[in-house]
Amino acid sequence: MIKRIAISLIGIFFLLQLFPVDRSTASEEAPVLASEPVLTILRKSCYDCHSDQTKWPLYSYVFPISLFLKNHIEEGKEELNFSKWEKLSPKQKATAADSIIEEIEERNMPLFSYTLIHNEAKLSDKEIQILKDWAEKINASYEEEP
């Protein structure tokens, strides 16, 4: 009986692999306009979850990981999508910049679960400072507007 249940579960697991999730990427509508150091940091540490340029790793093709990642990425892009950054109003950019500063200072971003597998995405103190300087410039330019 246990053997049949195990074989059935394994069969169901393999059948579920036949139903892939949509991993397509869109072109960037209005990508971030920033210096190359800022863009390099954003690409390596943020873009997989916060842009339309997600690089899907091999493990993202395995159910149920595929569903978890798809939902996680959709939530990340809903919160902040760097592929649409330049469509944001100055006020929205300033608000997002404040959130970015807070998240990276508290080391909430990139997520620990992401950096476990993608060690290169961890932010150094220097990279955090580069992003903070960039975000502070965004805030300063918003405050200067009439």
UniProtKB/TrEMBL annotation:
Pfam families: Haem_bd. SMART domains: Haem_bd. InterPro entries: Haem-bd (IPR025992). Residues 10-139 form the Haem-binding domain. It comes from the Bacteria. This is Heme-binding protein. It comes from Leptospira ognonensis.
